[in-house]
Amino acid sequence: LEGEFARLDRLNLVAQMAAGIGHEIRNPMTTVRGFLQILRAKDELANHWEHFDLMIEELDRANAIISEFLSLAKHKVDDLRLQNLNAIIRALYPLLEADASLGKKAIRLELGPIPETYLGEKEIRQLVLNLVRNGLEAMGEGGELIIRSYREGDAVVLAVCDQGSGISPDALAQLGTPFFTTKEQGTGLGLAVCQNIVVRHRARMTVETGEQGTTFFVHFPCSVDFSQASLSTANNFHYTGF
Ligand code: ADP
Ligand code: MG
Fold it and tell me: Which domain of life is it from (predicted)?
């Protein structure tokens, strides 16, 4: 399977709108959630507690979607500076490990010698976090997730390798489409955020998947001329597998 898609213009528009209205929507939602909790606790409404729980759950889901939308729009390109990817991953490791241990999983770092590349620290943290969380969520109970870094030609490669059940051809075709999710509690925005970050780094994301698990690769260019403000909207999320 090979594919390519370009949804970035749509994504950027969506991100700008989200930045404008996200905060404004959140405040009234917080108020509503608070009153729902008060009503849920009333004895005379006890026969409706399931409905209140459902309403609160739905509000939380909407809130999660807004959070991910905001993170689409938050970061700026000029955050990028020469630094080592390994340092960012190491600093993030305790958080990742805590996530993993909740599901009795382990995370192994295999960080090789790599040169510094132009990276936005917050964006890379978000990228790694989103890929790792997807990997962990795909693995069920137990298992090991590996985060690798290595140099390949003119690129520094980040690889997030899980032992999950893989991505179906149907899902592969929709990967990165905002709101595409196969999870009950999913937002379907994690990979869309990743793609946005990858493109701003002039990087490239690929995925390999099969019955043994899935690996997401991100290739960061070692030398890149950011003065050439040619932010390509021809996004390059190639995938292989099956
Ligand atoms: P969410 O995690 O909220 O569902 P994402 O954009 O992060 O949204 O992922 C979209 C979908 O892509 C997931 O619901 C899942 O079906 C699929 N996916 C992403 N990463 C993996 C992975 N490592 N293994 C299996 N499926 C994955
Ligand atoms: Mg996700």
Answer: Bacteria
Q: Which ligand is nearest to the CA of 189?
A: 1
- Please give the distance, rounded to the nearest whole angstrom, from the Cα atom of residue 155 to the centre of ligand 1: 25
> What does the pLDDT look like over 165-192, one tens digit per residue?
999 999 999 998 888 999 988 888 899 8
Q: Which two tokens stand for residue 87?
A: 């340092």
* Residues 205 and 173: beta-carbon distance below 8 Å: no
Residue from 161, 181, 185, 195 whose mutation best tests the ligand 1 pocket (most atoms within 8 A of CB): 181
Side-chain half-sphere of 23: how many Cα atoms within 13 Å? Answer: 6
Residue 5 to residues 74, 121, 134, Cα–Cα distance (Å): 23, 26, 20
pTM: 0.76
pLDDT at 238 (0 to 100): 46
CA of 181 to the centre of ligand 1 (A): 6
3 state SS of 44: helix
113 DSSP 8-state letter: -
Q: What's the complex ipTM?
A: 0.99
Residue 235: predicted pLDDT: 39
Predicted confidence at residue 24, as pLDDT, reads 80
Closest ligand to the CA of 175: 1
Structural tokens at position 62: 């909407």
> Where does ligand 1 bind, in terms of residues with CB under 6 Å?
130, 134-135, 138, 162, 164, 167, 171, 175, 180-183, 186-192, 214
pLDDT at 120 over 50: yes
